[in-house]
Amino acid sequence: RIAGIEDPIAGYGRLLAEVGRLKESLAMRQRLRALDPFVPVYNWVTAWVLWLNGETDAALALSMSVPPAHRGYTAPRLLAALGRYQEAADLIVSASGMFLPGVADNAASLLRSAPARVASPEALPRLGWFNFVYLHVGAPDRTLEFYEDGVEAGYSVSASNMLLWLPYYASLRKTQRYKDFMRKRGVVAYWRERRWPEQCRPLNADDFGCD
Fold this sequence. Notes:
Layout: H1 6-18, H2 22-35, H3 40-52, H4 56-63, H5 68-81, H6 85-94, H7 103-113, H8 133-136, H9 145-152, H10 176-185, H11 187-193, E1 200-202, E2 208-210
């Protein structure tokens, strides 16, 4: 391990993915992997970046290669997206000790019922990190809560933000709620100062749109 090199590369590669510069992020993460292929958190974030770039098989293989304690943190999203709900739920339960009591169990229970739609999305418990489960049970409007809570708490930089670029968030990216969230995070200001990602563009001085 080369001290002082991996962390800046990891952070910058993650930032690129969060702001939608997905191909550049992948190049940076691949550079990181070449320098240090054994750090679990580096690998599962890189797995997400692979997924964002359409390399789903490689993403799943990498996310499942990390130690068991980390798999439940990252791989369930990939498995659920592939329709492998029971496997995803099992991994969520395996990670229950990392979250507030009941959160993982609630998420796993809901996911085991997928793809059936719940009757009352507004009555579902808050799932925090496992917010992706809402997508698979017919409650997509609940998925943004976790990210909004992060901004309100002053924690607007997180690897999970990059997942909002996944294809199944496309309809969410067209909502006013998403636009407000991205403004509060400071991403829109970043885009205007640096450059826009290929998925988004300014519509006028005050508005923007994303695919």
